[in-house]
Backbone:
């Protein structure tokens, strides 16, 4: 049996070696390597069941995760577990007031980036100077109005998540609608000169009438047998 021919050497004088392609990753492995955004977490501290329901509904409809507590001590106890991006705290919380809770959060090494919004009833007084000293980011009045709440907290959430290096979860606002376009004006009708129309018709008749008369005459004569 004749020996198999050898492969010609490469230009460098060495035999080329086939490189094995890198192993393909499975779909599961590729899916695991994708970065998953961390959801926005909000801690709502209020001892009013009605305020809790209203606030929780507004926040959940926006896609946020919400944890509710009824006093300041419970809020502090849940901070490490929740790692909130935003804290909504009633000014007159039992056990630990909203001012005290805000001060604690803003001085805490881990949670100081969280936005803190103090909330109070429509007729309840808010000590703005005390709120400023505590590091409060904003104040909201109850009953909650969804548009006001969301316009207030969105920048605070984005700022907190940027400081913590998380993916912004806030849904981007859709681009403004294009201004309505002005309706296209119908094309202007050309001006018609009646005299030019009459002249064109007369010319057409002058050219076609003799042939038409001749054709009709021949048909009549044929019909009469001439």
Residues:
């Amino acid at each position: 049996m004749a020996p198999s021919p050898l492969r010609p050497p490469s230009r460098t004088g060495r035999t080329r070696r086939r490189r094995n392609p890198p192993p393909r990753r499975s779909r599961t492995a590729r899916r695991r390597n994708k970065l998953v955004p961390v959801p926005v977490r909000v801690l709502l501290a209020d001892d009013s069941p009605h305020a809790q329901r209203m606030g929780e509904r507004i926040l959940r409809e926006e896609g946020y995760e919400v944890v509710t507590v009824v006093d300041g001590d419970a809020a502090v106890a849940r901070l490490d577990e929740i790692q909130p991006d935003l804290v909504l705290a009633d000014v007159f919380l039992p056990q630990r007031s909203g001012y005290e809770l805000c001060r604690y959060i803003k001085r805490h090494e881990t949670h100081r980036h969280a936005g803190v919004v103090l909330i109070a009833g429509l007729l309840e007084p808010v000590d703005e100077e005390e709120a400023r000293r505590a590091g409060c980011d904003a104040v909201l009045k109850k009953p909650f109005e969804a548009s006001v709440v969301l316009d207030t907290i969105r920048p605070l959430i984005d700022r907190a998540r940027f400081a913590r290096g998380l993916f912004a979860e806030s849904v981007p606002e859709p681009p403004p609608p294009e201004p309505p376009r002005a309706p296209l004006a119908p094309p202007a009708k050309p001006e018609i000169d009646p005299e030019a129309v009459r002249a064109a018709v007369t010319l057409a008749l002058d050219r076609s009438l003799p042939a038409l008369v001749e054709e009709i005459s021949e048909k009549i004569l044929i019909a009469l047998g001439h």
